[in-house]
Amino acid sequence: MRHHTVVLGLVASLYSPEPAASQASSASLTVSANVVKNCTISTTPINFGSYDPVEANATRALDGLGTIVVTCTQGTSGHIGLSQGSNAVGSVRRMEDGSQYLVYEIYKDPGRTQPWGNGFSDNLDVPGAPNLDPRTITAYGRVPAGQDVRVGQYLDVVIATVNF
Q: What are the pLDDT tens digits along the chain (164 aa)?
């Protein structure tokens, strides 16, 4: 009986679960991304509606509004410039209908005292974007009173550019 007991003890000692010593090594993994500054721009037209040179607009200007929407990466600032348009003569913006022209201007302010152009001194500064929400900026248009023009549909195309 003793012999049998010894064999069982030997088998049990061979299979006794003792924890094995483990080893480990560590290294850091660097993760990076570069967020680029970017802006997009879109517009809604300035539609002045009907210009009446005989009565309503003989002595009173015709005003209209349009919008420029800018969406920029957070912290990105920029400048929005407006071209003089397709039919300008010098710094005078004009809508065209064939060979006839209707003079107008676009301003940065509601009082229509600051013309909006494409140069360093007359573009619109846009402060750093607080977030990705689109920012809507109003473009204030004005067709001066007293223009002697024929009946027609007058159009112009102005290019809005955001530099950032």
A: 444 444 444 444 455 566 678 999 999 999 999 999 999 999 999 999 999 999 999 999 999 999 999 999 999 999 999 999 999 999 999 999 999 999 999 999 999 999 999 998 999 999 999 999 999 999 999 999 999 999 999 999 999 999 99
What stretch of H or E contains 103?
Answer: strand 100-107
Tell me how far apart the alpha carbons of residues 146 and 41 are, in angstroms, rounded to a whole number. 34
Structure tokens belonging to residue 55:
């009565």
Regarding pTM above 0.85, the answer is no
- Reported residue count of the chain is 164
First to last CA, the chain: 94
Residue 14 in 3-state DSSP? helix
> How far apart, in whole angstroms, are the C-alpha atoms of residue 73 and residue 95?
35
